[in-house]
Amino acid sequence: MPNQHDILCAITWQNDQLHLLDQRKLPQEHQLMALSSATSVAQAISDMVVRGAPAIGITAAYGVVLASKAAYAADPNHWQTLIETNMQQLAQARPTAVNLVWALQRMRGCFAKISGNPVPSLLEEAQGIQQEDIDANRQMGDLGASLLPSDCQVLTHCNAGALATGGYGTALGVIRSAHAAGKISQVYADETRPWLQGARLTAWELLQDNIPVTLLADGAAAALMQQKRINWIIVGADRITANGDVANKIGTYSLAVLARQHGIKFMVVAPTSTIDMNLESGNQIIIEERAMTEILMIGGQSIAPNGAKAWNPSFDVTPAALVDVIVTEKGVVKPPTTERLATLMK
Ligand code: MRU
Question: Within this chain, do residues 160 and 85 fall inside the same structural domain, yes or no?
């Protein structure tokens, strides 16, 4: 019997279309959205139909396949010029996860070698990116799990699982591998306001794999640590800069500060496609700010008085000094420093 994570796929290419599992509706509804244009792919990324740094990159890569199909049909001799508007649209769909521009650059790297119809080569590349991501997650799962003690109780934030990647997950990949090795006795998951990725997606993924999961309100994490109920925090990342600073879902930084205060270890799990060696440190990362309504309303219902304003940064930056270990598919960086990351990325 395959595990649920082996069949759980947020992104599939079928019948010349991209199919995305609409993550805004999970876990109540399982709706697939079929997309056949790059513009609709960019919109789906902006609207959070698909989310999670590696998943956004993979989706954008398939977006390039759809863009090339339309451009080649319009003018077979100038498809590379015609595709540019779509490349820009895709690049701007969300600003913080570097995997998006990384995947677009990888797709662009194929253009020069293509003669004739670009779709078969670009589709092969996009599928290659997805498969490599799954392989990287498996590798990180083993590496990360080997760092954990037995009878481990962990806290995770947001969703860094199969849904956020090509499959298996980064932070949840480590949790899955550690659970399979008999090391995990309890997973706590922050609900993760305002999109509730922890409550809706992480809890759903873990329950289907029979991994014990307990949800908590984000504000309860401090008390959880004070009561010594966890020994590791394990999260994913949207962008890691050359010095090891980590951008991840809003609330990650407060967890890292709390972890240091309470003597709890802090692990970041991310493929090397999430490492941005072009930025020296985290204060150069563009942090996405989303609509106020995401804070002021829940499920279409206002929860704040008319006229109230809201601040809604989607990510924050955890300084490298608060991170005990970064786990990548190429190896473990412990603790992260500019020198160690440069060696890893050589
Ligand atoms: O806004 P989201 O849901 O795209 O944010 C996702 C996260 O912050 C994840 O932790 C990160 O992308 C890593 S996913 C493997």
Answer: no
Asked whether residue 53 is marked as a ligand-binding residue, the answer is yes
Best mutation site among 96, 197, 252, 253 for ligand 1 pocket (most ligand atoms within 8 Å of CB) = 197
Per-residue b or e along 305-320, where b marks 16 or more CB atoms closer than 10 Å to that residue's CB: eeeeeeebebbbbbbb
Whether the Cβ atoms of residue 328 and residue 270 lie closer than 8 Å to each other: yes
Per-residue pLDDT tens digits for 74-95: 999 999 999 999 999 999 999 9
Number of domains in the chain: 2
Atom index in ligand 1 nearest the CA of residue 161 equals 15
CATH of the domain at 290: 3.40.50.10470
Same domain, 234 and 316: yes
Return the exposure string of 77-98: e unless at least 16 CB atoms fall within 10 Å of the residue's CB, then b. eebbebbeebbebbbebbbbbb
Amino acid residing at 3? N
Query: In which domain, by residue range, is 182 found?
Result: 148-345
Beta 246-249 vs 213-216: how paired, if at all?
A: unpaired
Residue-wise pLDDT for 288-314, tens only, equals 999 999 999 998 999 999 999 999 999
